[in-house]
Each structure stands twice: as C-alpha cells, then as structure tokens.
Amino acid sequence: MNLLSVNAGSSSLKFTLIEMPAQNVIASGLFEKIGLAGSFYTIKYNGEKYTREVEMVDHSVAVKVLMEELINLNIISSLSEIEGVGHRIVHGGQEFTSSVILTEDVLNRIAKYNDLAPLHNPANIMGVKAFMKALPNSIQVGVFDTSFHTSMAETEYLYPVPYEWYEKYQVRKYGFHGTSHRFINKTISEYLKRDDLKVISCHIGNGGSLAAINSGKVVDTSMGFTPLAGIMMGTRSGDVDASILEYMNKKTGKSLEELTNELNKKSGLLGVSGISSDSRDIETAAAEGNERAILAQEIYAQKIANYIAMYNNILGGADVICLTAGVGENSKIMRKMIIERVSSLGIKLDETKNDFRGEFRLISTEDSKIPVYVVPTNEELMIAMDTMDLASQSE
Ligand code: ADP
Q1: What's the pLDDT score for residue 114?
Q2: What is the rounded CA–CA span in Å between residue 44 and residue 20?
Q3: What pTM was computed for the model?
Q4: Would you give the DSSP letter of residue 364?
Q5: Ligand 1: centre distance to CA 329 (Å)
Q6: Residue 278 catalytic?
Q7: Rounded to 5°, angle at Cα 296 from 295 and 301
Q8: Which of 7, 197, 348, 395 is 20 to 30 A distant from 384 in Cα terms?
Q9: Which domains does the chain possess?
Q10: Are residues 382 and 359 in contact, defined by beta-carbon separation less than 8 angstroms?
Q11: Which string of DSSP letters, residue by residue, matches 356-368?
Q12: Average pLDDT of the chain?
C-alpha cells in the first residue's frame, strides 16, 4: 500500500510517499511559505527535483496542489492509490499514549493540548483537516511526539514545584522526539535480537534529546514541559536556572516572551559561539582556532555526556548507547568529544570505526563497557509503519 507521511508546520508541509511494507520511498517534498508571499514547493521523484512557485493561501491549497502534482508527474495514477496518511502531531498530552486513527472527535480532543504546543499543534491539525478533505476515503493517523514518553513514572515526569501546577495546569515533563526514540529502540532491539534492552537513545540534531529506555519503555527523557529543556541544542539553551528570566527581565526590560524566545532561538551553539547554530559551521570555526566555537563545542559535548551518565545510572547500567539525527549520524568530531567525556564509565570509541557518516555502525571498541552505535533515524518510516498497522486493524 502507498502511504503518505506528513509533517505540517505553521507555514510548511513536508511529505514522503512510501510504499509499504516494502519501505520504498516513492517521492518526497516540501511546501514552504504557505499563506505567505512567495510560496513554493519542491518534489523529489525518480532522481529528479521539481521546484515551482505557486500561490498557496493555506494548507488546503497546498494539499490540493500536491495531489494534482502526484498525478501530473505520473507518480500515482489515481488518488485512491494513497490508502492512508500518517501525520506527525507534536503534543498528545498524557492522554494519547500511542498513535490513533484521526476523526473529527479525536481532533477536538487533540486541540485541548494546543496551549501546550501553540506553535505546532494548531498547524498539525490544519494539515490533518486539509488531507481529510482531499482524501476522504483514506485513513488518517496521528503519531505523537509525546506518546512514547507517556510510560514515564511520576517520579520522573513531575517537577518539584507546587503540586497544583500539575493538577490544575498540566505542568509536567512530557518529552518530545518520541517517534525518533521509538524508531531507534526498535532498530537496535531488532538488530541485537533482544526486547529487554536498556538503551540510551541520543537524538542530536538541530533540536536534541536523550531517552533512557528499558525493555521498550521510556524511563526518562531530557526534554521537558517544552522542547527547551535538557541538553544544549543548535539554538536552544537546554536546562538553565529559571530565575534567569526574572533577572534578565529586570535588567533589560525585555518581556518574558522575548526572553523565552531568546532561550529557544538565540541560545545553544548559536548563542555561545555567536557564529551559527549549525555544527558544521562550528566545527570549521573551531578548526580555525575560534575560541567561542571551541567553547560552544565543549559545553555541547559535556551536557550530552552528563545526560548519558545520568541515564546509565537511572537504567542501572545501560546495554547500549545509540547516537542519531543530523549531528549524531554525521559528526565524527562531536561523537568523539561526547564519548571521551563518558570514559569514566569504561566507554571507549574506536576512532577507525568512527570515521564515516550517515550509516548504521558500531563505533566503540570491543572492550568498551557499553557498546555505542550510530543508528540513522527515520521518523517518516515510523509514521508510515504506525499508519499501516492501524489501517490493517481497521479493515
Ligand atoms: P532537525 O532537528 O532540524 O531535524 P537534523 O536532525 O536534520 O535536525 O540535524 C541538523 C543538524 O545536523 C545541522 O544543523 C547540523 O548541525 C548537523 N549536521 C548535519 N550534517 C553534518 C555533518 N556532516 N557534520 C556535522 N554536523 C552535521
């Protein structure tokens, strides 16, 4: 069956058309600047890349254009060939513990969590509605970033703040990147033929989070109430003392909103280096001796190493560490810097094995106390797998 895996943002729509269960990517693409001036799209198919500028006032128009193009480019011959659409939904609160078939009623339930993810959930829902209209006979499935983390215990997800913040206002740790961590756990568990693995999954991309997973269940994860918490990221600070906000508000007159925005968009690698949020630029500058770039790299690696050590503790000793996403899959320098900082746990990098990018590989030495693997993530495929499973259950 052909399935679409979709990620709708406030002004963008990313799609992958996948033939399942063969896991064959037929086409993929990105619609950008939806609802803005200069909207355009790119579709990749058969080794070719098509880019066109078209006015797209909203997601419904973008989906209509996509459907027309899939037929015009002979990617499919009829819309009935798309049997299902899997949607990335950022927030499912503590209610959605797994992926679900989307109906109007379910969408209303998801909308209850819009306040928890105001930048993402309304856009995700808009995307779903556009596809429901364009493909009324296809199954629509919601796959939540938060679901995989709903197995956390109170001891992990509660913040030590007044209890009513949780009871009345749903303030707790939710965690994100769940679809990626679930894919990593599934891949490594299948590879090592074990379903009782204790895994430290490190998703290190522009955004980044770690998850401690025991026998397929998340025990703890580094992102929190929002994706701002945890390790240092490309532009996010990760964990900082909350009092900084009040202090900076008084010192600079900037509002809480402005300051929170700076913690999300102007901090991390970008904030410390003053150069870029992209670790490739930081690596180039560091190689040229730029001190702030070197400092940014060192803080970045140390924060990740600290979480690895903490999660090794929480798991009572991990069986395996997996590195994934843009930096984890591609940056041999950052992998080395991170592993060096957990040497007290007896974890050792094999530098020869580490000399590659973008593939599934073991990168630790034979005598490393915990093996370390690079495991490329594939959230689109995980979404397609869930969609296929729910489609077959609903038949
Ligand atoms: P997102 O969180 O946006 O999904 P990705 O997982 O795609 O991010 O990661 C993007 C990041 O991966 C880039 O910002 C860059 O820092 C990093 N990256 C990609 N390729 C390389 C590379 N060859 N070397 C170092 N870093 C890389």
Answers
A1: 95
A2: 18
A3: 0.97
A4: B
A5: 8
A6: no
A7: 100
A8: 197
A9: 2-144 (3.30.420.40), 194-379 (3.30.420.40)
A10: no
A11: --SS-EE-B-TT-
A12: 97
